[in-house]
Design goal:
The structure holds two protein chains of two kinds. Chain A is α/β, with parallel strands linked by helices. Chain A has helices at 15-30, 46-57, 74-81, 99-107, 150-153, 155-159, 179-189, 206-221; strands at residues 5-12, 34-40, 63-69, 86-90, 116-120, 137-143, 163-167, 194-197. Chain A has eight helices and eight strands, in the order E-H-E-H-E-H-E-H-E-E-H-H-E-H-E-H. In chain A, helix 2 crosses helix 8 (206-221). Chain B has helices at residues 60-73, 97-107; strands at residues 16-19, 82-90, 117-123, 125-129, 135-138, 156-160, 164-171. Chain B is elongated and about 55 Å long. By secondary structure, chain B is α+β, with helices and mostly antiparallel strands. The chains are: A alpha/beta, B alpha+beta. Strand 1 of chain A pairs antiparallel with strand 7 of chain B.
Chain lengths: 223, 172
């Protein structure tokens, strides 16, 4: 075999994205805009939770939404119908967002005139956890019908989030779901996480969640 | 407050900025697709790309990054061919080693990295105890029973176990 030599590389593959994400966070803080990255499986209730969140906070905060889906404008249209500016990113097969894609989405918005931007990430419990979007806060939704073993199957997602919303608690009587077990499993992996039990259908628990979000936004606004 | 100007023929989308960047000059057969679009959505842009469309699956962005990084070293180091690339991947990552190699084989065609073998070593997951600050390794199978081996506390923060690192590579 011809002379094989070893070349040192020593590079983190995500270094580029991580640097972009940090730069984006700094830019957001300068503009006093809080960016929230919302993740979950498809169908867990991201869009509905966003709509309920907007309903609760829009009187005091200027909000926009970045929608990410593999295809369709369905979610952005729902947000637009509520009178909120929405940017729809169609990823065309890409299963998560990264910092450069979020930057593109933000190009369409005037950060100086916004207090809160919510990213509705692609429905997926695997990849979004691996890619820093530049968001200031990460939140995820686990819905009751999905089952209480998700923290065991997707540990990484639960470790990267600041908040877990256990949604569709109106199903608790019907589905086999041990809320206490979920709380215990999640807090082991991420003791700093805040957990809310909500129903985006009945509105139960939404108040506590939106109060948390308001405090997170205020922290950025008044820093 | 809507304030976004779009063609008036779509009043419902007043507040939406559809954003899908397309390459200048449209798309032709054989074009490698970037992740922001799938040409099949734009039949008016010309011929469908069909089989050559790179469907963006989970492992693809990571594989693209690996290729980009190793090719950056090639010219300066006078590399004629990359033989093996040594990677360290955290045990918490759900990406499949086999698929990273498959995608790499596809993407690297025609470059000095063509036929390079990816040697992937899984690195352990480590957590730090909130109570006593002890740092310890844990196997993925044992995560459901996560607790500090020093003090027994069940509240630990992730230190490492995700992420992808290119250590070095064998070249000719």
């Amino acid at each position: 075999m011809e002379g094989i030599r070893l070349i040192e590389v020593k590079e983190e593959i995500q270094a580029d994205n991580t640097a972009k994400a940090e730069a984006l966070r700094n830019r957001l803080r300068k503009h006093k805009t809080c960016l929230l990255n919302l993740m979950s499986s498809p169908g867990a209730g991201k869009t509905t939770v966003i709509l309920k969140t907007i309903e609760a906070l829009r009187n005091g905060l200027r909000i926009s939404v970045i929608e990410a889906d593999i295809d369709s404008m369905v979610d952005a249209e729902k947000i637009a119908q509520a009178g909120i500016t929405a940017v729809q990113l169609r990823t065309g097969g890409f299963c998560h967002l990264d910092a450069s894609m979020v930057e593109k989405g933000l190009e369409g918005l005037d950060l100086a005139s916004l207090d809160l931007v919510i990213i509705e990430n692609v429905g997926n419990l695997v990849c979004p956890a691996e890619f820093d979007t530049g968001a200031i806060k990460n939140a995820m939704i686990l819905s009751v019908p999905e089952g209480d073993d998700k923290p065991l199957k997707y540990p990484l997602m639960f470790t990267v989030c600041d908040v877990l919303l256990i949604n569709k608690i109106d199903y608790l009587g019907i589905a086999d779901f041990d809320v206490h077990a979920v709380r215990e499993r999640v807090v082991r992996l991420n003791p700093g996480i805040t957990i809310f039990e909500i129903s985006s259908k009945t509105g139960e628990g939404i108040g506590e969640w939106t109060q948390w979000l308001q405090r997170a936004v205020d922290e950025v606004r008044f820093s | 407050m809507l304030g976004v100007s779009l063609p008036p023929s779509r009043p419902m989308s007043r507040a939406i900025l559809p954003y899908i960047p397309l390459p200048r000059g449209g798309v032709k057969n054989g074009d490698r697709c970037s992740r922001y679009f799938v040409p099949l959505l734009y039949p008016s842009s010309g011929t469908a790309v069909g089989q050559q469309v790179t469907r963006a699956m989970h492992e693809l962005p990571v594989t693209e990054s690996i290729l980009k990084i190793v090719l950056r070293y090639a010219p300066a180091e006078g590399v004629k061919r990359i033989v093996r690339i040594f990677l360290e991947v955290g045990e918490l990552s759900d990406l499949e080693d086999e698929w990273i190699q498959h995608y790499f084989d596809y993407l690297s065609k025609g470059t000095v990295a063509e036929n390079a073998q990816l040697v992937i070593q899984r690195t352990p997951i480590t957590f730090q105890c909130e109570a006593c600050a002890h740092v310890f390794e844990i196997r993925r199978e044992a995560l459901h029973d996560l607790q500090c081996p020093e003090c027994g506390n069940t509240g630990c923060n992730l230190v490492s176990g995700k992420g992808y690192y290119i250590k070095n590579m064998e070249v000719v």
